[in-house]
UniProtKB/TrEMBL annotation:
Keyword tRNA processing: no
Keywords: Signal
Source organism: Chryseobacterium populi
Coiled-coil region list: none
Gene3D superfamilies with a match to the protein in the record: Periplasmic binding protein-like II (3.40.190.10)
UniProt name for this protein: ABC-type phosphate transport system, periplasmic component
Amino acid sequence: MKNRFKAIALVAFSIITVISCKKEDKSPSYHKGDLTILTDESFKSVTEALADGYMINYPETHIKVVTKKEDLGFLDLLNDKARIAVMSRELSPEEIKTYEEQVDLKILPAKFAADAVVFIVPKNSSKTSISMEEIQNGLASDNKEFIFDGANSSNLNFVAQKLKKQPKDLKFSVIPGSKNIIEELDKYPDKIGVIGLNTFSRPYDKASEQLRDKVKILSVGSKGKLYSADFDGLREMKYPFTRVLYFLTNEGNFNIANGFIRYSCTQLGQMIVQKEGLQPYNIYKREVQMR
């Protein structure tokens, strides 16, 4: 009788243990599990660097960074095909409404870096700057002197938004891929490439150095002044085509997507952003005046 009681107790304990393990496996966790992040090619480098940092800190997480055009990534997020996407352009009121209705969350962009869209010419070009007026006129010309990396890329969307235009109203050429634009630009000496700064912003990366050596980044003139896409230009957002990168998620609990977002916005994540050659959004240098 005593042995029978022990056997029943052992079976009951085993059942409770299995149930507890199943509940634990299903519970939200920021430090283990799989996550796919959708990002436009233009800011893939910083996204991968942050993902690598997160996996080093949390070895039980497995993050995959998938390149997808910004607008398509946003649609996948709305349709629950992904849990997190990197964005740069401002969403329209209609897009915000759709997000909040379909995701059933208030939209909370998690801003983590200041990047830029830059205008480049071959290294041997005599051109050193370009004005806002030249950009507007060039994108209205049948000469299609500006080369973008795609018809629905984040770079095109951002420039169109900055000029208060629709992308379909602009006239431009296309070479798929920002790195391809850099590699092939010297074949078109009368053209100007338009790429994301993060394409080659890593200061000590050999591949980035090789790409930077092939082209020249133009300063942009606005209201009689020239602005560069350097740390000062991005920090103060004086460079006209500075853009703020942010994460959007459809995850309502504190699971791996929100864990990754929190990490990216902490000091450790922001140090990674800075090492990428971009301006951290959440650790601006501050001056305190004592009186």
